C-alpha cells in the first residue's frame, strides 16, 4: 500500500465534492438513488436516439442467410396449427409499423336481386393482406345496422382497425358513424369527391365478387346469398399478382388447403359418391365461366380505353357524380337528371390526368377534375348549364334542419344555453345532433324554433 501526498489528497477531495450526489455515504444496502446511471447533456444538445439492439450490416446478412438455409432444409418450418397466425408488418411513412387489419376499406354492392330478404353486400377489405369479408344486408339499413354487422363478422376476428377508407356513402357520412369512430379512435378517410378511383382496391374487389356470383348462380340469380360464403373463400384463396401469393397465405402464414379431385367410385356410399361428383362437375363449370368472364371483361374494358387530352383555353363539360345526382341537386327523377354541367374553360393542366377549370365564383367545389369526368365542348360555348346551388365543397347538398326532436339547457362557461335536438334533412333520427338555438337562428332564420 502507498499513501497519497497532500496535493493528491486535496485533488481527490475536490473531485469527490464535485460529484457528491454520486459518492454520498449510503444509508442502506443497496443504496437508493433516483437514477442508477445518468449522463447529463450539454444545453442545446439533442437527446440520444439509438436503437437498443443493432446488428452490423455483415452480421445481419449472415443471420438472414443462416435462417434461409434452415428454412430450406426444413429445420424451420411454417406452423400448421389452425390457431397460429403470424404478425405481418408493413412500415408506414412516419417510420412506425402496422399489422394486418389495422387499415381497411369498406364499400357496398347494391341493386342485387332480393335473395332471402337480402339485396346488398357490405365489402370489407384489409388493405395490406387483401383479405376480404362479404356480409349480406337488407334494405333499408342504417349506420347502426352496419356497425352491428361489422361487429358480428369482422371485429370478432380482427379487432378494431386504426383507419377506415370508404367512399362518401351516406352511411359513412352520418353523424352516428362519425361520432362512433371518433370515440373508438378510428381514423376515417373518405375517397375524393367524384373520384371513386381513390378507393380503387375496393372497387376491384366489388367487380370480382359480382363476377363470382354471376358465374356461380347462373340461371338462379336470386340464390346468390347461398354462394356468398364460397365466393369469399374463393377470393381469399386465389393468387393475387400484387401480393405474389394469396390473401389467405399472407394472413395465416401458410398455403390454403389444396382441393383434392374426387375419383368416381372411390366411395361405397352412393349418396356421397353422387354429391362429390356434382361438386367436381360444378368446379369445372365454374372455372370455365370465370375464364370466359375474365376475357369478356377485358374486351369490354378495352372498348372504353382511349386517349383524351385537352389544351389550355378549351371548353369542357364537367360530369358530377354519375348515377348519384342526389348529392348534387334534389330532383324528382334522378335517372333523368343532368349529368354534365358547363362548359367551363380549361386554365391549367395538373399532371397527366387532371385539369383545372375556371368555375364560377359562387362554386364551392374543387376546380381540379380527373380527365374521365370531362367532355370537350363543340360549338357555342356561351350557353352554360350552371352548377346547382346549395352544394358544399364536397359536392353535396347542404343539410337543412327538418324537425326538433327534443330540447335541453346546458351550462357552458358559467352561462345557461338552450339547445335543441335537430333531425337533418335526408338523415334519420340516429343522426340527430344537439345544436345551439342562437346558432340555428343565425344560420337558418326561416326555420321555426320556438315551441
TrEMBL record:
Highest taxon of source: Eukaryota
Database matches in Pfam families: SH3_Tf2-1 (PF24626)
Record GO terms (molecular function): nucleic acid binding
SUPFAM superfamilies reported for this sequence: Chromo domain-like (SSF54160), DNA/RNA polymerases (SSF56672), Ribonuclease H-like (SSF53098)
Annotated ranges, domain Integrase catalytic: 82-255
Gene Ontology terms: biological process: DNA integration
Annotated protein name in UniProt: Integrase catalytic domain-containing protein
Native organism: Apostasia shenzhenica
